[in-house]
DNA sequence: GTCTATAAAGGGATAGAC
DNA sequence: GTCTATCCCTTTATAGAC
């Protein structure tokens, strides 16, 4: 009706206000409770709208879930893994990269997204791919590119940059990630993080120094 | 009734036949569908019993779930990580350990247990601890003990055996595990597994050789 | 102990008024 | 577009017969 008079905002841009409000509520509920335990009632209540309104903006629970999981974290990962330290000092570059990787990895919201993505991977296979591409794959590519460049410049000896990148990330991830996911609450404090990052850098350099 | 005449089997030993049958069905359904999506109906149907029978043997869904998750995999991890190669050859020992670790890590059933444990970690915190102790912690302890011994024998230089163990495991786990959990289906075949294990051994030795 | 049948509650989704 | 009220289905769990 009058809709024709109002030029709609760009196709998939900003977001119709109320939709954003609902999406934020969905994120809160899903990340805290998981897909199965979250109810549309709870999401509507949290958003402060009725369920009918909710269904006016989104097709159903699954679409809402997909929107949350494939949400803004992809851009997070991209920003936070941009080169920062001078490329001619591998130790400094690796340490900087490691610190930012660990900070992202252990961010409470990132942990929650990881939990539900992995937990629902069987039910939502495409979501798993999206998540992997949006986060983990990005980090790997960034580090691989750096290692390849450092090798070309003769500053590191890295015959297989992609594999070396996985190794470096793994040395930091494995001691910290699962404990955090399960909330074991031991061995994941800032002190340990620093120790683990430093150790990964040392081991990596010992193996790949020119 | 006549039950008094039959000496009951040891307290928590073998298992009352039908209970085992139900537990097997529960395992199948939970591992395939997760906690939320699994229904007691499906479990009863799979077990070939009525729901009433099911509830006669187990308190409810949560108990069944806990029994499945904290099930026989703990003993699996223990058996499969026993030393196998001669202790005086670190390369052979690490390779053997690595191969068995990866095989366990990527076993379809182990992947399923990991998915649901991590996915339901918020709802069942104690289950997370149980899982960690029964699996990951065991592997870490075994490898740590081996590295400490090898260091004492002067065959490796390992100032911090526990951390070194995490690093070695991480170099194999990170390239393979998440891809398998999400069924990305790329980079996790036997060929890649072998490459990754060999590379982890080389990097580890380069950093810790005496 | 085991079954059939059912109770009791909660969930996703929608109809209809405004 | 938004709300209230409700439909309809599935789910967990149990009562009662055998």
Report the count of strand segments of chain A. 0
Helix content of chain A: over 70%
> How is the biggest beta sheet of chain A arranged?
none
The helix/strand class of chain A is mainly alpha
Strand percentage of chain A lies at: under 5%
Low-confidence stretches of chain A are 1-11
Counted by DSSP, the helix tally of chain A is 11
Distance between the termini of chain A: 70 Å
Succession of helices and strands of chain A: HHHHHHHHHHH
Provide mean pLDDT of chain A, rounded.
91
- The quaternary state of the protein chains shown equals homodimer
The Cα radius of gyration of chain A reads: 21 Å
- Biggest interface: chains and residue counts? A-B, 48 and 48 residues
Coarse shape of chain A: elongated
How are the elements arranged and paired?
2 copies of one chain form a homodimer.
Chain A: H1 18-37, H2 40-47, H3 51-57, H4 61-69, H5 73-80, H6 90-105, H7 108-119, H8 125-134, H9 136-152, H10 161-181, H11 190-208
Chain A binds a DNA duplex (18 and 18 nucleotides) through helix 3.
């Amino acid at each position: 009706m009058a809709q024709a008079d109002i030029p709609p905002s760009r196709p998939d841009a900003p977001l119709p206000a109320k939709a954003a409000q609902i999406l934020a509520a969905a994120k809160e509920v899903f990340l805290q409770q998981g897909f199965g335990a979250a109810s549309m009632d709870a999401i509507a209540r949290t958003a402060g709208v009725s369920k009918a309104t909710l269904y006016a903006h989104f097709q159903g629970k699954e679409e809402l879930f997909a929107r949350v999981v494939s949400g803004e974290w992809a851009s997070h990962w991209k920003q936070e893994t941009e080169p920062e330290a001078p490329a001619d000092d591998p130790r400094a570059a690796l340490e900087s990269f490691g610190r930012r990787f660990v900070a992202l990895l252990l961010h409470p919201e990132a942990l929650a997204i990881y939990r539900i993505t992995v937990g629902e991977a069987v039910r939502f296979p495409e979501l798993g791919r999206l998540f992997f591409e949006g986060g983990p794959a990005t980090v790997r590519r960034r580090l691989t590119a750096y290692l390849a460049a450092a090798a070309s410049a003769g500053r590191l000896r890295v015959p297989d940059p992609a594999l070396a990148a996985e190794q470096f990330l793994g040395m930091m991830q494995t001691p910290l990630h699962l404990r955090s996911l399960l909330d074991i609450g031991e061995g994941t404090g800032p002190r340990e993080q620093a120790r683990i990052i430093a150790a990964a850098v040392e081991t990596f350099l010992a193996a790949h120094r020119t």
